[in-house]
Amino acid sequence: MKKRKKNTTMETYPLELSIIIPVYNTPLSYVRECLASIDLAQIRYCYEVIIVNDGSTDRELTNYLKDYKNERTTVIHKENSGVSASRNIGLKQAKGNFLLCLDSDDKLLPAISHAVSYLKSKTSYDILYCDLQFFGDTKYLHRKCEFSKFQLMYVSNMLTPSSTLFSKRIISEILFNENLSYSEDRDFFSRAASLGFQFKHFRYPFCLYRRIFNSQSLSQKNVGMKNEIESFIKSQFDVHTELHKKK
Questions:
Q1: What's the average model confidence in pLDDT over 43-72?
Q2: Pairwise CA distance, residues 32 & 204, whole Å
Q3: Backbone angles phi, psi at 168, to 5 degrees
Q4: Domains in the chain: ranges and CATH
Q5: Pure H helices in 41-94
Q6: 32 Cβ partners below 8 Å, 6+ apart?
Q7: In this structure, is the dihedral angle defined by the CA atoms of residues 50, 54, 91 and 223, taken in order, positive or negative?
Q8: pLDDT higher than threshold 80 for residue 217
Q9: How many other C-beta atoms are found inside a 10 Å radius of the C-beta of residue 19?
Q10: Are 52 and 73 in contact (CB under 8 A)?
Q11: What is the rounded distance in angstroms from the CA atom of residue 216 to the CA atom of residue 99?
């Protein structure tokens, strides 16, 4: 009796990674670089890209996104409501086991595959953040420290969305605060830390973080509200309770 050959063409693989990219009037050249970097990263896992156009008024950019075709990519067009709302829309639609909110002026690096592998194998961790490789008007590598909940909540933001990969299970409990126009990432990850999700420092950068000195980078806007918003973030937590909370 002949053995039946395995039909490899019918095999399916789980969707491991969802990349959410909010876009609002980002220079088209930056968006092109961002999307090209995902292809160049040669991700070893099944992945999807969710672009959320947050009511951009740049006609060239909007037309480009309307015409953009890629079998792995979904483009969502919505009225302007801010980066947090855009990320939340993408996160809610994401099907991957791991999520990355990539800013539309940043670039992805091949090390993202190693980051996914790490979280898949080290199931005690929920959030993986990497060292920060700057490019643009300045080029240097910022080595991050090992995770400290106290530093994240009360001293300074250790994380950026583009350099932080996290498990999908987190968004069953928290999303980005859509009322914040600055440090919404610090607020999100501080609440994740308070809920007991586990963080791990990953030494290999899996993104390039654009730094431009004319304050047009997505992550450099709205700095004027910094003190007020960061005071609000800290006020959500009691330092004694957080530092003595059991993991």
A1: 97
A2: 24
A3: -65, -25
A4: 13-244 (3.90.550.10)
A5: 59-67, 83-93
A6: 64
A7: positive
A8: no
A9: 28
A10: no
A11: 25
Helix (H, G, I), strand (E, B) or coil at 11: coil
Please tell me the predicted confidence (pLDDT) of residue 225.
67
Q: Which two tokens stand for residue 52?
A: 């959320």
CA dist list (Å): 230 to 154, 187, 234: 9, 8, 6
Q: What are phi and psi of 23, to 5 degrees?
A: -130, 125
Q: What are phi and psi of 130, to 5 degrees?
A: -110, 165
Per-residue pLDDT, 157:
87
What's the rounded mean pLDDT across residues 122-126? 97
Q: Which residue has the tokens 């910094």?
A: 226
pLDDT tens for 196-210 read 999 999 999 999 999
Tell me how far apart the alpha carbons of residues 164 and 206 are, in angstroms, rounded to a whole number.
Answer: 9
Structure tokens at 244: 């003595």
User: Which residues is 142 bridged to in the sheet?
Assistant: 132
pLDDT of residue 163: 97
User: What global pTM score does this model have?
Assistant: 0.90
Specify the pairing of strand 47-54 against strand 207-211: unpaired
Which region holds residue 129: left if phi is over 0, alpha if psi is between -120 and 50, else beta?
beta
Name every residue whose Cβ is closer than 8 Å to that of residue 77 and which is 6 or more positions away in sequence.
Answer: 53, 55, 62, 65, 66
Task: Name the β-bridge partners of 61.
Answer: none
Tokens of 90: 């993408």
